[in-house]
Amino acid sequence: MPDHSYRMDLMGHAKLADTSPIVAGSWTNFTLIYTAGKFGIDDLGSVRVAMRTHSDMTPLQTTDPKAPGYLTVEASNGAPLEYRFDYKRNIRPWGNCITVLCKGFLRPNDTLTFRIGDSRQGCPGVRMQTHCESAFQFRVTVDAFASVDYTPVLEEHQPTVTIIPGPPVVWKALLPTLRRPGEPFRLIIKAEDRWGNPSDQFDGSLRLKAKPQIDGLPSSVTLARGQFSTIVDELTLDVQGDYTVEVFDGDTLHATSNPLRIADSPFAHFWSDMHGQSGESIGTGTAREYFAFARDRSFIDITGHQANDFQVTDAFWDEINALAVEFNVEGKFLCLPGYEWSGNTGLGGDHNIWYRTEGRPIYRSSRALISDETRPETDCHDVKDLFDALLDEDVIVVPHVGGRFADVSYAHDARLEPSVEVHSSWGTFDWIVEQSLQNGHRIGIVAGSDGHKGRPGASYPGDAKFGSYGGLTCHLLPNLSRDALFEEFRRRHHYATTGVRLFLSTSLSFEEPARIFHRNPDFEPKSFVHHSKAIMGDIVRTQTDTARLDIEVSAPSPVERVDLFDGTTLLETIRPFTDADLGARLRIICKGQETWGRGRLVKWTGQARLSGANASRIAAVNYYNPDKQPKLTAPGIIDWVTVTTGGFSAIDVWLSRVDTNAKIEIETNLGTLKLAMSDIGVTPTVLECGGIDKTLSVQRLPEVFSDKRITVSRDIAIPKTGERAVFARVALEDGHIAWSSPIYVGRDTA
């Protein structure tokens, strides 16, 4: 339950010696002074100073005064103290915690001085957390009576500091991925610092160049210091095709936008990150800041808030609903009320809940961290009870893998659950898609961030337990409205990505009209239309023996491969190159996770040693920590440290000299690969390392990729019984991945 609230006004106060703003990810130190209140601190009483669980500030330590994170605590009256720093030994969300045990006592107005990153003996300080926060808090709680029952000091006496972005390092230009001829769109240009925070530190002009020409696009734009982005609105195009915009600072190319497809279509594309949390639960910042970031910093079209239900008070549930009303503007930005049902995995595990309208009940898995019971109990401790409670609600439910993972084999209701989440900041989890398909669930595939750093739609992992950039979902909608979103979501008309905005289309064409169902035919068998073409997510019944599968990709990075699946069976891997195109380029890949649950993170330490060959350069793929990039330490030696949580990290190595007997030895803490260079081909050579899909591998690639747009056509046989679940997984050169929702096709026997 929450901390005690007895006489918070008499528990003292705390302050920082310096409250100047700090740049995210920079090195600093803090002096925090706690002054005892009216009760003092009794003998064997204690004080805690805690930071949020998902802050990635340098972990503190008390043993090495010259190492980062050195912590000291002193009492003004000389009382002996014991102190330590622990992770997850305090009530959430304050899991990074200093605990000071007073071996004597403190009188009122005695002080404790905390030196965090104490530099007096050579400690370099602490590296500040890598994400921005308007009020980073050192939360002080007091056990004044030696009862091991902690009471916070008043909120106005809690010390805070503002964390601000650094200078721009990465520029991004964002366009929609699909619009109809004549339909207005906008171009967004923004910068990010080295840790992925939107940066407002640029002052100057940028030159724009469209390919092909976009009428009405200015030749340049200007940003002033303090401005996070610039938007060129009300652009239109009448000529169908693919368009990009390049952004230059002088003659230096800063960014190339994602491709925009202009085409006659019943749908446009709208991008969402509907899954994240703010500081009222386990995240960062306020819910208001969360929604504003999605709209004004990451520039997604659709968002939702997903606080853990056992931390959502009735008052906070009301606030989420009120903010959804305030931020939701049909046609411009959709904001959905919702929460995360956070039941234990054995009772179903994590599920996202989104309502179409505000004012609906919250059915909690528990009230573990809230005490209010101001409204009738609506708790649903088991996901099966949740499904029963939601059957009459206008709601969408999606199981996902977070701290807890959803057990899709335990319970599923196709009337409520149209899709599963394959990717988030926690990692990439193809296995939850596979388990759903093995169970016969007709699911679509979505992605989100599940971000805890207050950056929905642009959620970088930082330097802690998250291993991936947050995902996005592209929704195929006739217009940007809640009604359209819910209708097309339930028909699984969407695709998932690991955060990249690309154009992806999959369709099946039939020689004669087939039945395409509006809903799962197990429940609504008479709700269908006849059409000769089905798109991703559709459930189809046809009387023809074959159908034509068409896949089209237009991406900001070259395509490395397209994997074509029928359910859990890999039918074919399609590459836009042949063996003859392979060059003097290797890709070394660390991949996988330890378990399905919280202990999934894999720590890799590796070295590749070349003999009979030299490396001229290397490039990192999915290494999001700028302080932990792979290094070419000698012409034949590459060193790296990385983490994976279901996805992969890779190093591309370009070879400048390769003798006929050249070899490579790849040694990691989890296993070693030794190979002759001549034995390495485009199909990876894989060393199994245990865990779940935990592997070390190496493959050969072309020296240069060039195909950002590819099309694939295949004839698909229609089975006489059962159905096929046909979908594509697209891998790009830069490490991003996209998944189309399956098309479920079978023989029409009606």
TrEMBL record:
Name of the molecule in the record: DUF3604 domain-containing protein
